[in-house]
Write a structure and sequence with these properties.
Bound molecules: zinc ion
Helix content: 40-55%
Order of helices and strands: HHHHEHEHEHHEHEEHEHE
Shape: globular
CATH superfamily: Glycoside hydrolase/deacetylase
CATH class: Alpha Beta
Number of strands: 8
Low-confidence stretches: 1-42
Length: 235
């Protein structure tokens, strides 16, 4: 009974936090200011949840490999796609949706100077990406968004994005695949280190053209979180 009460308490404490907190803070901020509620619940196996996220696709070289691995491991992920890469890769977008993964928006151009020129410029780019997805998937109603570079790059645009009806998600753990030329073993180690002590993990990865090491590391990353009794969820 006590165990059940503890689990319920943890769930209640986590519920209002949900991902608004993760969305509001950068990975560095999250690491520097761990929530006491999350820390208290972290020890409880019952609430461990991971969200695998892939940015910067679709690509011919990496996205299909990632999808193959996810299918083999029977886990779902969230793909924040770059709109201008969709043309010619419609089949990959269809495959992501058909295999039960979630499509999110990562702007159309991903060009910082352009998208971060003003909030209207950013919203135009986001909308352009959404239209490109709906060209392939007419029923697409997704309103998930990830800021290129993270929302902490331009916190002044968070409100505009929210007002436009989008929910944005940052991350609180990463493989570091965009940070340097790591081996697949190092990518796994980075994922383990950055997620330590967290019961809800939003893991940042990339399926851009240069990220073959990410696909290489993915089976071991998934194995680790399975062994740690995490549930795999989508945003
Ligand atoms: Zn990106």
């Amino acid at each position: 009974m006590k165990k059940i009460s503890t689990v319920l308490l943890c769930l209640l404490l986590l519920a209002p936090l949900h991902f608004s907190q993760i969305s509001r803070h950068s990975s560095a901020e999250s690491a520097a200011r761990p929530s006491s509620e999350i820390s208290r619940c972290a020890a409880d196996e019952a609430v461990k949840e991971i969200f695998l996220t892939f940015d910067d696709g679709p690509t011919d070289s990496v996205t299909p490999k990632v999808l193959d691995i996810l299918a083999e491991e029977k886990v779902k992920a969230t793909f924040f796609v770059t709109g201008r890469q969709i043309k010619g890769r419609e089949k990959i977008i269809e495959r992501i949706a058909n295999e039960g993964h979630i499509l999110g928006i990562h702007t159309f151009t991903h060009e910082y100077a352009k998208i971060y020129a003003s909030s209207s410029s950013l919203l135009r780019d986001i909308e352009k990406c959404r239209h490109e997805i709906t060209r392939v998937l007419p029923d697409y109603r997704g309103k998930l968004y990830r800021f290129p570079g993270g929302s902490f790059m331009h916190p002044e645009y968070r409100e505009a994005v929210g007002r436009a009806g989008y929910r944005y998600y940052d991350w609180n753990a990463m493989t570091g695949d965009a940070e340097g030329a790591y081996t697949s073993k190092q990518l796994l180690e980075n994922a383990i280190r950055s997620s330590k002590g967290k019961s809800r993990v939003v893991l940042l990865m990339h399926d851009g053209i240069t990220k073959s090491k990410t696909a290489e590391a993915l089976p071991a990353v998934i194995k680790y979180f399975k062994e740690e009794n995490f549930t795999f969820s989508v945003l």
